[in-house]
Amino acid sequence: MAPKSHLLLLIIPYLVATAFHDVAAAMGGRKEARVGRWEPIKDPKDPKVHEIGQFAVSEHNKEAKVSLKYESVVKGETQVVSGTNYRLRIAAEDGGVSGNYKAVVWYKPWEKFRQLTSFKRV
Length: 122
Prior knowledge:
Elements: H1 3-26, E1 38-40, H2 47-64, E2 69-81, E3 83-94, E4 97-108, E5 113-121
Antiparallel strand pairs: 1-2, 2-3, 3-4, 4-5
């Protein structure tokens, strides 16, 4: 095996462990996550969840050419996939009127990748 292959064998388990740690933290410290199953986020005020919520509103504003103002994450769920899907209920202000929105963000921290996959008013 080439030296680069040995390096990959060391890095890949670390990246997978890091992803599971992020999910556990977002779920309120839970140590295990079930792949493919939506699990409730126990603390929607967690800084990581807050960051994902702000990202969702910011991306929606760019895509839809609107100017919603992020307020908070009301509740949410995570799903372990190749990374983590965050399905969030977000409170945001639109022209002085607060409303709730449902957003899904796909997050892969080891690649520094985030993608808004859906966003709609509920």
